[in-house]
Amino acid sequence: MAGTAPLTPGWSNWAGNQRGSATAILRPGSPTDVAEAVRSTAAAGGRIRVTGSGHSFTAVALADDRRMDLSDLATMVSVDVAQRLVTVPAGMTLHALNGLLARHGLALPNLGDIDAQTVAGAISTGTHGTGAAYGCLSTFVEAITLVTGTGEVLRCSADEHPDVLAAAQVSLGALGVLVEVTLRCVDAFVLHAHERPAELADVLGDLPALIGGHDHVEFYWFPYTTRVQVKTNDQVPANDRPLSRWRGWLDDDFLANTVFAGACRLGRAVPALAPGISAVSARALTERRYTGRSDRVFCTPRRVRFVEMEYGLPREALPEALAALQRIVDGLPFKVLFPVEVRFTAADDIWLSHGYGRDNAYIAVHQYVGMPYEPYFRAFEEVATGLGGRPHWGKLHYRDAASLAAAYPRFADFQAVRDRLDPHRVFSNPHLTHVLGA
Ligand SMILES: Cc1cc2nc3c(=O)[nH]c(=O)nc-3n(C[C@H](O)[C@H](O)[C@H](O)COP(=O)(O)OP(=O)(O)OC[C@H]3O[C@@H](n4cnc5c(N)ncnc54)[C@H](O)[C@@H]3O)c2cc1C
């Protein structure tokens, strides 16, 4: 074992809404160390939670016994440029991965809003970006190596243990410790970003053409208004319209973080101003176009802290869900300070993926830290559940295993693999017991 820290300073996630202290912190240096740690923990009747970058809003990564941190785990990096396959340590951040891929003329086909997550953490909760033809990041996974709850090191791919692969591509860390992940990449590419304000009704009225006509589409609805900001990203041959450093800093850092943080603080101190702030924000956003390296266009810094719930819905349910959301926001006894984000993904066949078997529209509701949010999130959840929604595994929700089993046709198959790989529930915690069952 490379390191078992005797002291266990408190751990908290990015949003600061999940905090806890583990009984020990395990820092394995190799897959053999991981296997030894799992075997000795199982023998002692203990539990392990692996944490990535702590960017989940739920208690999914919270350790109630031992916490495993994989930042010292040194496995081989291998890049096969001809096959566009890369194998990396599971604890590598997406930021580091994007840099590695760029140096080899490769890229991930799609990404979410940020790149701070680890590869394992991102795929374990079904992290996704937007793009009607793109599945979540787990759909790029070709193979994984994981250490099971009995300390067995298992390599899984389409040829070896394909059932374990289908379960482990989105697994909430319930099947074992991912030590290595092989991802299918694409040639490095440039995106042309176009951001523009619009009316929500116009966007919804033309939605199939909008999402079918661009590689990646998302929009933000500003509560208390009828306005949205639409963002499309399309692959182009040349990076001929880059943002100047100054404009990039002004828009993506200063306005999106510093000014927005100030507006949120004001809205929290004087809630009656929130609708006005939302309206001013919606009006202040102007049109802009630029090009850039794909990962740099997909991902931007997020420094304003918030809590979030996100639901994947059958795409056709989007207008009804948004109409209900507008009524919910108007009826709340407090104000909502964050815009609502809408994205799109393609169907996949990963058992616990939010996109299993269907094209999704995602609706993400946020609230600034320190503001009330539970009645808002619960009311939206009731609507989303009624429309067949599946909650993001890394974002706040209130569903339990019985209710989630009904939303995922392969839930029982996942449990069967879990029983086989982790018979003693070494990789459980109270949150997992709640959402996956004992
Ligand atoms: C600012 C912000 C922006 C975000 N943007 C998006 C977005 O655009 N799209 C989206 O879908 N989500 C987004 N998320 C959610 C985020 O992508 C997920 O919660 C993701 O799981 C976080 O990854 P992490 O490395 O921080 O993992 P953690 O939150 O630390 O852990 C997540 C899960 O992975 C498990 N895990 C981690 N490492 C391993 C391992 N080696 N083996 C087995 N299990 C492991 C943990 O046990 C836990 O169950 C965002 C979150 C924040 C805070």
From TrEMBL:
Listed A to Z, the keywords are:
Oxidoreductase
Coiled coil region boundaries? none
SUPFAM superfamilies attached to this UniProt entry: FAD-binding/transporter-associated domain-like
> What EC number(s) has UniProt assigned to this enzyme?
1.1.3.8
Respond yes or no to whether keyword Lipid metabolism is given for this record: no
Q: Single GO molecular-function term? A: D-arabinono-1,4-lactone oxidase activity
**Which Pfam family, any one of them, does this sequence belong to?**
FAD_binding_4
Q: Work out whether the entry's keyword set contains Oxidoreductase.
A: yes
Annotated ranges, domain FAD-binding PCMH-type: 18-188
Q: Name one GO cellular component term.
A: membrane
Gene3D superfamilies per the record? 3.30.465.10, 3.30.70.2520, Uridine Diphospho-n-acetylenolpyruvylglucosamine Reductase, domain 2, Vanillyl-alcohol Oxidase, Chain A, domain 4
What protein am I looking at? L-gulonolactone oxidase
